[in-house]
Amino acid sequence: MRQLLEEYIEKNRAIAVQGDVADYIPELRKVPINTLGATVATTEGDVVAAGDCSTEMTMQSVSKVITLILALIDHGEDTVFEHVGMEPTGDPFNSIYKLEMRREAKPLNPMINAGAIVVSSMIIGRNVEDRLERIMDLVREMSGNPDISYSREVYESESATGHRNRALGYFLKEHGVIEDVENVLDLYFRQCAIVVTCEDLAKVGLCLARDGRNMDGKQVIPRDITRLVKTFMVTCGMYDASGEFAIRVGIPAKSGVSGAIMASVPNRMGIGVIGPALNKQGNSIAGVKLLQDLAREWRLSIF
Ligand code: GLN
């Protein structure tokens, strides 16, 4: 398995130069464009890593899965989906378009920025630090890595330049969807800056693949919630490329602009990928191709 993973990584590394590293968050520019690595964690307990798998990255939008889980634990399905919808948008992840065009200012789903900002506003805690700690605790439990923390540099970098997200936040505030907008945005920027490796992402994916049980066999998320978030990963996890990804790869997955991809193959494995060169939709250009190769080779499609 390791040799195959290594071969596919080297094959796809060449594609990376066709993409671009996200530059609207200045700190993200610092990673070499041809970085590509992956870790696979299986239900049998094997952890196989290859390429630049030990390069650290921030979770960025992968954190949207974690906050959705936490909001569902905190409030239950009915309340959460009063505030955020369940439909893919077909628009870029940071688009404001549908929010303004629809009668209600209710974001279409929790995997786009507007939806994730609303979800973050629902996390229970005394203050921003406390809420962030709860989010990081869930990542720690799912990944089995007690050392998970966040990058102050990336957080500050996005906080200083995240004008579009501020616009989304203030639009939502104007419509009474969120209240404490600066604190909500502060939490959102921090959760995006949580630092992980491919192994952490693979184990988060594995925990979902095992219906909420982590590597130690502990049930850390209710099973129903894992079904729900995996479905969102299929329909909305790769932004406006989710349809194509479902057809070509066929695995629940969530990407982030750091080049992170967390994939979960039900009852089989979690896969964590780093590949910071992005395609037009903001997904790792080489990472998507790598997953496509692995899915074909190992017959991973759930369809
Ligand atoms: N922090 C990023 C943003 O809000 C996350 C987006 C992403 O990973 N697609 O723009």
Q: What would your notes on this structure say?
A:
With 303 residues, the protein is of the alpha+beta class. The chain has a 5-stranded antiparallel β-sheet. Helix 2 packs across helix 11 (223-236), helix 7 crosses helix 9 and helix 8 packs antiparallel against helix 9 (181-192). Strand 7 (260-265) and strand 8 (269-274) form a beta hairpin. It is 47% helix and 11% strand. The longest helix is centred in the middle third of the chain and has 16 residues, at 128-143. The protein is globular. The chain has 13 helices and 9 strands. Bound molecules: glutamine (GLN). Residues 60-61, 93-94, 113, 158, 165, 192, 256-257, 282 line the site of glutamine (GLN).
Descriptors for this entry?
single chain, 303 residues, alpha+beta, 5-stranded antiparallel sheet, 9 strands, 47% helix, globular, binds glutamine
> Major beta sheet, specifics?
5 strands, antiparallel
State the end-to-end distance. Answer: 23 Å
Q: Which whole number gives the mean pLDDT?
A: 96
Radius of gyration: 18 Å
Number of helices: 13
**Side-by-side strand order of the widest sheet:** 3-2-8-7-6
Content of β-strand: 5-15%
Q: Into which percent range does the helicity of residues fall?
A: 40-55%
Number of E-state strands: 9
Q: What general outline do the C-alpha atoms trace?
A: globular
Which molecules are bound in this entry? Answer: glutamine
SSE succession: HEEEEHHHHHHHHEHHHEEEEH
Structural class: alpha+beta
* Unreliably modeled segments: none
